[in-house]
Amino acid sequence: MRISRVTEERLPHATGVLGRAFLDDPMVRWSLGGTDEDYADRADLEDRMTKFFAAANGFTVAHGAMWETADGDGVCVWLPPDVLADYAQDDIDTIRPELRSIGFVGEANHGPMWDWIDGCVPKERLWYLDQLGVEPAARGRGIGSALIELGLGMAREMGEAAFLETGNPRNVAYYERFGFRTVDDGDAPGGGPHIWFMRWEP
User: pTM, whole model, 2 decimals?
Assistant: First the structure.
């Protein structure tokens, strides 16, 4: 499966894929806040999710860390160790203020949750799977697997570990198929979702 880096020109398409893929993701929903009424309007929620991922990924595209399959149905963000060190600060500087303009009220959730997550990520050289999304209609075709293996191949070549977190219990078994193992888990601050932290060793 052919995979290439997302360019600035392709960023709107890629963030649209992520917006649709994460509509029901507990972590993103919590970090954006909102109400049940907000979530009931799927078209509006998809638009807000897409704007969220657009705000989150200017940094990743600039650093060549965002990838897509040739058909555009799958997108991932694999942060290399040297890029990961700067990513958290970029989140503080750009994403959190953007939440106000997106229209959700989740800034109070977003900051504490991601600060807690950042504290759970080991401070060592790691390849970090930050985002993985596949168009709902294209799932089951091996797209997600190919994107995961892309990052694991780079980590393996460097002899370095990989790390991720997920708030979806169904994803735990999925990532275990690739050799990830849960090393920690817990509830995000303030009544947030339960999150699993998973590690892969080369």
Answer: 0.93
